[in-house]
What we know:
- By secondary structure, the chain is α+β, with helices and mostly antiparallel strands.
- It has one domain: Roll (Thiol Ester Dehydrase, Chain A).
- The chain is built from 3 helices and 6 strands, in the order ααββαββββ.
- The protein has a 6-stranded antiparallel sheet.
- A hairpin with a 3-residue loop joins β4 (104-114) and β5 (118-127).
Amino acid sequence: MTGTTIWWGGEQPPLEPMTLLGENAMPGLLGIEFVDCGDDWITARMPVDARTHQPFGRLHGGASVALAETVGSVAASYCVDRTVSVAVGMEINANHIRPAYSGWVFATATPESLGRTTQVWTIRIRDEEERLVCISRLTVAVIPLERK
Length: 148
């Protein structure tokens, strides 16, 4: 889907409001921050620390899924007219490829399909050395705002 912008209104969305949106919810608790955006992708990062570890000191798979759903859902919401529609997760899966122990992981969401009522996104989570940590697929429903 490269070549033209996917974002509603034709302009890349601002990153700071995306991060602030989750400030008092799970994304804020996990330290998720939106850091970059292109014509057809968006990237957020999350620390690998005590907040996101499992008991053996590795990045928790659930934290990876929370990161994937956060970046995919937020990206989806900026591909619709937010005055009339909202994008909500319907299904997510994840394959955990390699562990991460510290530092940051970066999740980049790219669309596979941007339909009128459903969207499908692929989210690749990489460590600071660009090694693939997790790959996820998210299906999103586009529903009327009053049904949120």
